[in-house]
Amino acid sequence: MNGAEALVRTLLGSGIDMCFANPGTSEMHFVAALDRVEGMRCVLCLEEGSVTGAAEGYARMAEKPASTLLHLGPGLANGLTNLHNARRGYSPMVNIVGEHATYHRVYDAPLTSDIEAVAKTFSHWVHMATEAGSVAQDAAGAIAAARRPPGQIATLILPADVAWNEAPDGPAAPPAIARPEPVEPDALRRAAAILRSGEPAAILMTGRALRATSLDVAGRIAAATGCRLLAQTSNARMERGAGRVAVERIPYPVDAALKTLHGLKHLILIGGKAPVAFFAYPDKPSVLTPSDCEIFTLARIDQDLEAALAGLAEELGATKHAPAAEPLKRPAPPQSGPITPETLAATLAAQLPENAVVVDESISVGRAFYASLRNAPPHDWLQLTGGAIGDGLPLATGAAIACPDRPVICLEGDGSAMYNIQSLWTQAREKLDVTTLVMNNRSYAILKGELANVGAQNAGPKALDMMSLDKPDIDWSALARSLGVESHRASTVEELNRALDASLAARGPQLIDVVL
Amino acid sequence: MNGAEALVRTLLGSGIDMCFANPGTSEMHFVAALDRVEGMRCVLCLEEGSVTGAAEGYARMAEKPASTLLHLGPGLANGLTNLHNARRGYSPMVNIVGEHATYHRVYDAPLTSDIEAVAKTFSHWVHMATEAGSVAQDAAGAIAAARRPPGQIATLILPADVAWNEAPDGPAAPPAIARPEPVEPDALRRAAAILRSGEPAAILMTGRALRATSLDVAGRIAAATGCRLLAQTSNARMERGAGRVAVERIPYPVDAALKTLHGLKHLILIGGKAPVAFFAYPDKPSVLTPSDCEIFTLARIDQDLEAALAGLAEELGATKHAPAAEPLKRPAPPQSGPITPETLAATLAAQLPENAVVVDESISVGRAFYASLRNAPPHDWLQLTGGAIGDGLPLATGAAIACPDRPVICLEGDGSAMYNIQSLWTQAREKLDVTTLVMNNRSYAILKGELANVGAQNAGPKALDMMSLDKPDIDWSALARSLGVESHRASTVEELNRALDASLAARGPQLIDVVL
Q: How confident is the model over B98-119, as pLDDT tens digits?
């Protein structure tokens, strides 16, 4: 077998059986190997932001890395932004990046670039394969790195001749799966002491601490001690809704975040980072906690967050306390009138299907969605973790591939949707049950507020022009259909209800142009 | 005035009055400055590949750099691929990349990344501004770097507080424009001796050597010495067509390139690089020149190519020889039948408007276009220079902005078109006279040949699936209209003629879905 086949078999041996791809000439041997080896599903995306974003969404829901296949330095470069987002959300990923044959690089052909330098910008682990005989071991190294807690980006660069030369030893053995480090017993005792102090305290969580079973434990701790439960502003995945313990998210706007954290004397981090402003603004603080709030890291993100919560509950004798699980409350859906952020939030609360995966990249329009879905049927909530907009459609694509039996709802800003709009085609090709709601307000609405927030007063016409997406209006229904996605247009609540009914009843991807 | 305003005024002082932008919160002060300062045109693009690609197209035609405005590391990352292409085509560019306020970086907010590392991957010059008082000088440094022959990528990182703080000294003086280095007289004598030797020789050109006036000189040299005139496979801009001296391009396929270069004993480089294969293939050479061909560099790309040609003609006494300028030949357009690469090439030759700017990213379908337009009315020919596909629509956008009085024709593969499809919206917004012909063969057709070329025989269904763009077919007409571009569908030669007639007569962007 050749190097490419040894590589594919090594991936499969570790259970990595999903590959999101946009290949070129230098990756043809990897592609050819897919037909000689059973078991690797390969999904084509039309540009690389869709590739890496889909791999990210897949990893969040499948709880294991996907592989990606990218075409040399520029192909990788197009996918970097969603590596940034994946990195910020601790999603594992194994990128295979093609490269010129080792002996060809010296000639500096047009597509030559410093792929290692490109890869290092947003990967935790980078390796350039040098021979077919060792590429399987290289792949095992990439897999081990990707799975290192809390989840890492591993990028293996595969020169064409390494792929096509004979690999006499075949695939490598699957590397052991590394367990996250446990927290120190002393840290548990200190955290328990803080929570017993009676001073205003909160636990700030992200990562696996936001799964239902951990939230149940956190709920017991809150019941026993009166502490508050907080989540980061953005989280890769949260299990929430009816029957689960609700967590307050730190809001994005600085003033609202300060208000949320006001009065806290103690903040215990379980995976979370000390809360800071998303951007700096003149005359607003970067640090969001009160100056007299003491921050204690009980568990770093690479530690065992579930065990940390369990250990803390044990230490506090809280395991028998009853957590405050949310009741199911289905509001009656609004029946008529214009679509506003509020009526949209209420409609979602009324209509959200059971067991949905909700991808939220709704930016300014969606600020009320999180609260409104607190008592909806149980669902997963996936957010943009790195702030680099455009991740929503690819995330939904990957999540739907990981969870073929669950409805995926993608709440997407119109500005954000345009970065990786190509993902719609992949949704159609793979017949994925994704319903995308595009918040069509014909602007980068968040920037209008931010312009004032940063002190750039009295915006003139040129500045406003940089935030407006009209001239021309994008016809979202036609755009979706042109890429094979069924679509609906809703400019009233009645139309929105009808469009949601139709979309949720249909199979295959749907897009609703939600005109605000 | 604040740092942002000092920066904008410094750009304007050097004649950089064009900015392609996709800004975010950290760039709001730059955006606000646009309304306080007269003269900077700012064009919004919906993702950053369209930003940098448009800046590249603008630079090729305007013969000066545009500026870009990008949102932190991820915004820059999305634009890297077309920086790669611009770099390979020697197009100057001044990128302004927003960054968190200097004091905010330490907090590692979600959008934080190592922007300098990202920028360095494809920029010649990178600088992180540190204070408002010096940002104008920084900008002057960026401008000087961008203009350094043959044209460079300069990236200035602009922290938000550097933009919003007071800049007491205002804008900086425009830096001097560097002239390209002349070639050595001795090199001219050696090149002349080679051409006088009577042995089979060719001149290989790119860059400014491919403008009409230089080609006229090259034509005189060819007339005097019998040498052949060659151009690189890909060139940023070539002036060609009737009344101009034609140049043979080295073909992309290795076998065809070997045939073109067969028998040559001497190759004189004027800006061009020694020809090598675009990719490596097992059992094919990387170096394309015959083993006994001597390569002589008369002028590096950063030297004065026009003066090199003029000096060589002088040295050879060739200035009075008559160059073989191409006659105008308008073939009768095909009247009926299916659209094939051949009928399409003939139709273009019959219909190409006077003084067009042709952007060619037609990949496999377009292999006959270059030859077929040899005797068309004078036009500029712009190619993908770095091999990272997706540059065509942004290039056409930037070229149309630089040349508002010229028709721009974009010959675009369907696979390639999808990388930066968002550029269509900017063409509509700016009402640009671009006619895009999408070569709709529903596949990455080039890869089907490449799969065999690299020796991956007997492609199976999974491999072929990675090259097919059907399932679903993209509805190009609907896609274009959804983004505000008028569109036409042509699946016969009759329909193609009608669509071209209508498109070329209309104002504003047009797209023709050319169904092959």
A: 999 999 999 999 999 999 999 9
Contact by Cβ (8 Å): A388, A234? no
> With an 8 Å Cβ cutoff, are B462 and A31 in contact?
yes
pLDDT exceeds cutoff 80 at A513: yes
**Mean of all residue pLDDT scores within chain B:** 97
The contacts of residue B177 (CB under 8 Å, 6+ apart) are B147
The string of pLDDT tens digits covering residues A378-394 is 999 999 999 999 999 99
Question: Which member of B28, B36, B472 has the closest CB to residue A450?
Answer: B28
Contact A305, A232 (CB under 8 A): no
Residue A201 pairs with which residues in a beta bridge? A266
Task: Please give the Cα distance from A83 to A79 (Å, whole number).
Answer: 7
Asked if the Cβ–Cβ distance from A418 to B160 is below 8 Å, we say no
Beta strands in A276-388, from DSSP E residues, in sequence order: 294-299, 356-361, 379-383
- B16 and B175 Cβ atoms separated by less than 8 Å: no
CATH architecture, domain B341-515: 3-Layer(aba) Sandwich (3.40)
A70 three-class SS: strand
Beta-sheet strands, E only, within B167-279 = 201-205, 228-231, 238-240, 248-249, 266-270
User: Mean pLDDT over all residues of chain A?
Assistant: 97
Cross-chain residue pair A25–B454, CB shorter than 8 Å: yes
SS (H, E, C) B356-374: EEEEEECHHHHHHHHHHCC
CATH fourth-level superfamily of A185-316: TPP-binding domain (3.40.50.1220)
Angle at A434 between CA A432 and CA A438, to 5 degrees: 140
Which of B36, B45, B84 has the highest number of chain A CBs within 10 A, making it the mutation to test binding with A? B84
**Partner residue opposite B419 with nearest CB, options A47, A276, A481:** A47
Q: Are the beta carbons of A113 and B121 separated by less than 8 Å?
A: yes
Fold: same for B3-164 and B341-515: yes
DSSP bridge partners of B94: B67, B154
Question: Residue B219 burial by CB count (10 A; 0-12/13-18/19+): exposed, middle or buried?
Answer: buried
pLDDT score of A333: 87
Task: Determine the distance in angstroms separating the CA of B177 from the nearest CA of chain A, rounded to an integer.
Answer: 28
B86, closest residue in chain A (CA to CA):
A110
What residues does each domain of chain A span?
Answer: 3-164, 185-316, 341-515
pLDDT of residue B446: 92
Residue by residue, DSSP assigns B15-40 as T--EEEE---GGGHHHHHHTTTSTT-
Residue B483 tokens, joined = 């983004």
Interface residue of B80, B383, B423, B426 to substitute, partner A, most A CBs within 10 Å: B80
How far apart are alpha carbons B515 and A363 in whole angstroms? 39
- The CATH fold assigned to B3-164 is Rossmann fold (3.40.50)
| Sheet order of strands, B93-99 included | B41-44, B18-21, B66-70, B93-99, B153-159, B125-128
